[in-house]
Amino acid sequence: MTDATQSSEAKGQPEAIRAVPVRHPGRWIAAGIILVLLAQLLHWAVTNTALKWGTVGKYLFNSSILQGVQRTIVITIIAMVMGIVLGVLLAVMRLSKNPIVTGVAWVYIWLFRGTPVLVQLVFWFAIPTVLQSVSLGIPFGPSWLLTDDPKTVVTQFVAVCLGLGLNEAAYMAEIARAGILSVDEGQVEAASALGMTRIQSMRRIVLPQAMRVIIPPTGNETISMLKTSSLAFAVGYAELFSTSQIVASRTFQVIPLLIVASIWYLFLTSILTVCQYYIERRYARGASRTLPPTPLQKLRWTITRDPKRSLT
Amino acid sequence: MTAMVCAESVEKRFGHLEVLKGINLEVAPKDVFCLVGPSGSGKSTFLRCINHLEQIDGGRLSVDGELVGYRQKGDKLYELKDREVCQKRREIGMVFQAFNLFPHMTVLGNVMEAPCRVMGESKAIVRERALKLLDRVGLADKPDNYPAQLSGGQQQRVAIARALAMQPKLMLFDEPTSALDPELVGEVLDVMRGLAEDGMTMIVVTHEMGFAREVGDAIVFMDGGVVVEAGNPRDVLTNPQHERTKAFLSKVL
Fold first, then answer.
1. Which of A35, A58, A256, B37 would be B222's cystine partner, CB 3.0–4.6 Å?
2. What would the pLDDT profile of A56-115 be if each residue is shown by its tens digit?
3. Would you call B103 and A192 a contact, using CB atoms and an 8 Å cutoff?
C-alpha cells in the first residue's frame, strides 16, 4: 500500500486524501448503554449467592455428570450416523425411477417429520408392549427367533437411539436430496459418457459435490441433535441433562446443576462449530480458486505481517 | 469397411416435439464429420443419441456395426441393460460445450478417474498415459490444478484429454468452442486438428465453418430435424445447393 502511494507521488500524481472522518455519536451512546447493562448483569451473577458458583464448580467434573456427558456424546454420534446413512439412502430412494421406492421414502419422511420427536422416543420405548417377539426371516415364511422378550432388546439406550436416529433420517433425507439436486446435470452426463455406472457416478462425482451443500445444514443438525438428546430424560435414560436433574433432585441445587449442564452443552457445541468449519473448508476444494484461510493461518499472517497475505 | 456410425431414418421425440425426423447418414472410420445448422435443428440431440445419452424412438442407429442401446436376436430387439450401455460408452469419448469437468478433482484426477475406476487399470500406467495426454493438449504444467483455476480453453483441453484417456475409437464433440472467448477458440481447435491428423474418427457439432472447411472430411447441414444437405465441406460451404443452406451460411460466414 505504502509502495503504491510513494510511486504515485513520485509520478507527480495527486496526494492521498486526508479528511476528518464523520463522527458517529449514536454508535458510542448505544455501545455505552449496552456495556452498562452487561456490567449490571455480570455484577448480579457474581454477587448473587443463590447461584452458588461453588456448587457449580463442585459438580462440573462430578463423576456421574461426566458419565452423562459421555452418554450424550455417544447417543448424539449414533443418532447422527444413523440419520446420515439412512437419510442419504432415503434421498437416493426419493430420486429413484421406481414409483414404489419413491413412495416408500416419501411416506417415511412424511411420518417421521410429521410427528414430534418426543412422541417417537416414547413410542420406541413403549414398543415392547405391542411386540410379542422379534424374529428375522422370509416375510410370511420361515424365520429365526431373535428374542421372545423384546424388553431386553429395546432398552432405554436403544429406544433413545432409534427415536432420535430415525427421526433425524427424515430431516437428513431432505438435506441430502437438496444437495444431490444442486449438482449440475452436466456432471452426471459427463460421468455417463465416460462409461461410469449410476452408482459410480453417484459415489465419485455427485455426492462429493453435494457435500458442499449438505455439510452446513448437517452441522446445524448435529448441534441441534446434541441438545435434542436431552429429551432422553422422558424415557429415563441418564444422559447429561437427566443426570443433572437426578443430582439436583437429590441436592435441591436446581439452578447450579442447570448451569453445569449448560456449560457442558456450550463446550460441546463450540467444539462441533470448529469441526464444521474445517470440514466445510475441505469440501470447498475446487469450488473456489483459493481456500479460505483457517483461523490459525489468519492469526499467523497477522502476527508475521505477511504483506501479501495480510487480510487488512 | 463398415461405417463407424450408421443412421437409418433415426427419429427422436421429446413429448410431442419431433426433434429428429428420419436422419440418414454414414460416418466412415478416420473421418472428421461435421454437423452444422441453426440451434434447435437437432444436431446436438443426434450426437447424444450416438452414445445413448438420449434414446432414439425410431429407425436404426449403429456404432461400429453394433446397434446403440439394443441387441438384435432374430427379428426382436432387446433393450440393453444399464451395465451393457455403460460398457459401450467406454469406447466413445464425448466433449461437451460446458466442459463438465469434475470440479472437486484436480486436472490429473479428472483424466485418471474413468480409466482407474471404470476400467480398473493400474494407477501407475494410467498416470503415465494421463501425463502424456496432458502434454499432448499442452497442459503438462497443470496436472495438480483444479478446473476452477484454469481458463475456458484450458478446461476444454483437459476435457479432451479426459475423453482420450479411455482410448476411444470415436470422439463426439458437442459445440466444443461455443462457450469460449474468441481468443481461446484457436487453442482447442488446434488440439482437435492434431487428433484428426492422428486418424481419430470424430463427429463435431460446430459453428466454426473455417474448421469444418479445413479439417472436415464430410459435412451435414441439418435444419428442423432433417438432413438438408450433405457432402464434402469445401463444396457445401462454397457452393450450397439448397436455399435453406444458403440462407444459413450467409449469416454465419
1. B37
2. 888 899 999 999 999 999 999 999 999 999 999 999 999 888 999 999 999 999 999 999
3. no
Q: Which residue has the cell 449467592?
A: A49
- Chain B's closest residue to A290, CA to CA, is B149
- Residue B231 — left, alpha, or beta (φ > 0 → left; ψ -120 to 50 → alpha)? left
Q: Residue A117's closest CA among A20, A194, A221? A: A221
Give the CA diameter of chain A. 95
Number of CB pairs, chain A paired with chain B, less than 8 A apart: 77
Q: What is the ipTM of this complex?
A: 0.91
What lies within 8 Å, CB to CB, of A231 at 6+ separation is: A117, A118, A121, A163, A164
Interface contact flag, A209 B103, Cβ < 8 Å: yes
Alpha carbon separation from B221 to A145, A293, B212, B243, B249 (Å, rounded): 71, 53, 11, 12, 10
**Where do runs of H (alpha helix) occur along chain A?**
2-10, 25-47, 53-60, 63-94, 99-114, 117-126, 150-153, 156-182, 185-193, 198-201, 207-228, 240-251, 254-283, 295-304
What are the pLDDT digits (tens) for A211-228?
A: 888 988 999 999 999 999
Q: Which of B83, B100, B104 sits opposite A189 (nearest CB)?
A: B100
Residues in chain B within 8 Å Cβ distance of A285: 104, 146
Contact A286 B146 (CB under 8 A): yes
Closest CA to B177 of B232, B237, B95, B93: B95
Enter the C-alpha cell of residue A157: 439406550
Least Cα separation, residue B210 to chain A (angstroms): 27
Distance between CA B2 and CA A301 in Å, rounded? 66
User: Which cell numbers in the block locate residue B108?
Assistant: 490429473
